[in-house]
Amino acid sequence: MANNTSIKKLARERRRKHIRKALSGTPEKPRLVVFRSNKQIYGQIIDDVNRNTLISASSQTKEIAADVQKAKSKTEVAQIVGKYLAEQAVQKKLSIVVFDRAGYIYHGRVKAFADGAREGGLKF
């Protein structure tokens, strides 16, 4: 490992590329991608055809800062962010998306984010 990259990160990148071969967001059915760092979680709804981000939200979004402060765990924060992102999407008349877990295991915070998005009104 010449560039100090961990095996876990390389494995996630391999899975992410494999997933992205099959998934693509269109204007009718955009891609909902999730990224998680150690402390934060981020979500974006992307139209891959026109190459633009339609909606984005994170655990640092000011509109949900009070709810994030009250949350007891990072999993609860992920659910709050997913629900907020879904509500923003529904306001822009987006209801059906393709979920891209970006190489992460569908478990824990990623699952909570997806459940929050479903609770907010998205279908995938």
Query: For the CA atoms, what is the radius of gyration?
Result: 15 Å
Number of strands: 4
Unreliably modeled segments: none
Overall shape: it is globular
Helix content: 40-55%
**Sheet having the most strands:** 4 strands, mixed
C-alpha termini separation = 38 Å
- Compressed to H and E, one letter per element, the order equals HEEEHHEH
What does this structure look like?
- The structure is a single chain.
- This protein has helices spanning 7-22, 65-70, 74-91, 109-119, and strands at 31-36, 41-47, 52-58, 98-100.
- It is of the alpha+beta class and 124 residues long.
- It has a four-stranded mixed β-sheet with strand order 3-2-1-4.
- A hairpin with a 4-residue loop joins strand 2 and strand 3.
- Helix 3 packs parallel to helix 4 (109-119).
- The longest helix has 18 residues, at 74-91.
- The mean pLDDT is 93.
